[in-house]
């Protein structure tokens, strides 16, 4: 019997190797001089141990004193993060010819980022309070940290956002897309989000790069804070494409708020499934026109064209 696979494996290899030589973006093969996704995820996991010392731990470290544990974690994170930042800077073509200066630049960024941890924890404490105050199903704050995808996605965002502000390429997006993969919550690290941010349920939420969110804002599942149009492609880079959400705004499930000129002012409530492309003034309650519901009871059909005024508050 002929071994068909053995006879063809050499030509298949040649075809694929020739295909790699076409110079396209997908043809890069230098995997050792670019950020390592697994390494970035490992750094994130250690950062979670630092941010929430009583909730996450790395079983690798058998240390009895908290300060020794945290010291080990900090050294591990800063060593590996510095390495990944240097790779990201070099890979992205940062304008720096001197390798020593580039290396020092990466170290300065790693140190500056680690110094933001107390600030990140300050913001996360308010996010945790907002989740507890806003969800009657929450039995404790511990439950929220252990189990809520919203607080997990917000935590990763706040860490990635600090790296984004420090000008680190690639790595912040790798972090938030990891959280996106796990939670279904897509927050671009470039978004600006104030304190007491609450995401309830979370699945399907999208927050675009130039979104600005104030304090005490609550989002439910399926909310999109997006661009009105992306047909301009790369010509829209560095332009305000996503909405501004002021303080004390609540946006219910399935709502889409689009456009860089769209401002949702303080105290606005946006009902479920609303589609908004223009600014909403302070204190307004926006709802989609009541759906028509048809009830069938035995052979009798009862029609209702209006729901209760507060229908969109029910999740």
Descriptive report:
This protein has 315 residues and is α/β, with parallel strands linked by helices. The chain has 2 domains: 28-185, serine acetyltransferase, domain 1 (Orthogonal Bundle), CATH 1.10.3130.10; 191-290, Hexapeptide repeat proteins (UDP N-Acetylglucosamine Acyltransferase, domain 1, 3 Solenoid), CATH 2.160.10.10. 41% of the residues lie in helices and 13% in strands. It contains 8 helices and 16 strands. The strands form 4 sheets. The protein has a 5-stranded parallel β-sheet. A 5-stranded parallel β-sheet has the order 3-6-9-12-14. The radius of gyration is 24 Å and the shape is globular. Residues 310-315 have low confidence and may be disordered.
Shape: globular
The assigned CATH architecture of the largest domain is Orthogonal Bundle
Question: If strands are numbered along the chain, what order do they take across the biggest sheet?
Answer: 1-4-7-10-13
Question: Could you describe the largest sheet, including whether it forms a barrel?
Answer: 5 strands, parallel
Structural class: alpha/beta
Global Rg: 24 Å
Could you name the CATH topology of the largest domain?
serine acetyltransferase, domain 1
Tell me the count of domains. 2
**What is the average of the pLDDT values?**
89
Write the layout of secondary structure elements.
Layout: H1 4-19, H2 37-51, H3 66-91, H4 99-114, H5 117-134, H6 141-147, H7 149-165, H8 171-183, E1 186-187, E2 192-193, E3 198-199, E4 206-207, E5 212-213, E6 218-219, E7 224-226, E8 244-245, E9 250-251, E10 256-258, E11 263-264, E12 269-270, E13 275-276, E14 285-286, E15 293-297, E16 300-304
Parallel strand pairs: 1-4, 2-5, 3-6, 4-7, 5-8, 6-9, 7-10, 8-11, 9-12, 10-13, 12-14
Antiparallel strand pairs: 15-16
